[in-house]
Amino acid sequence: MTRATHRLNRRQRKKKHVGEFQTFCFAVDARYRGAPARPALYAMLDEFIDVAIEGQGLVFGGGGTEAFHGVVSSGVRFAPLGECHRASVGAWLENQALLEDVVVGPLIDAWTGSD
User: Fold this and answer.
1) Whether the Cβ atoms of residue 59 and residue 74 lie closer than 8 Å to each other
2) In contact, 107 and 83? CB cutoff 8 Å
3) What is the pLDDT of residues 73-114, one digit of tens each?
4) Contact between 102 and 28 (Cβ < 8 Å)
């Protein structure tokens, strides 16, 4: 915690989403190989949500039919999101035949967008 954060009491830290109440997220981006058939695309997206996201207690906002991009965060309020989650989601995306140029962004503060 920074010096300014130390001066805040628990209620203030929770309200400002700092200290133990800080929430992290990371972005994911990829391109589809060619033009995948809709049934195959939807099956891959369903599996992504079931296995890579909900299977780890995470939530995802995003998608797309032209390109795949979105944001991943913890599904439980104030639960930690770590490098292991980033690596797991990234590895899952890299192993998909329908995707190429997979980029998994760094962990950032979900409320301020900073590192």
Assistant:
1) yes
2) yes
3) 887 776 778 899 999 999 999 999 999 999 999 988 777 766
4) yes
Neighbours of 26 (CB within 10 A): 19
Nearest CA-CA partner of 106 in 74, 83, 75, 80: 83
Cα separation, 113 vs 107, in Å, equals 9
Structure pTM? 0.80
Match 């899952």 to its residue by tokens: 92
| Residue 68 near residue 27 (C-beta atoms within 8 A) | no
What tokens appear for 100 in the block?
């190429």
Q: Is the pLDDT of residue 1 over 60?
A: no
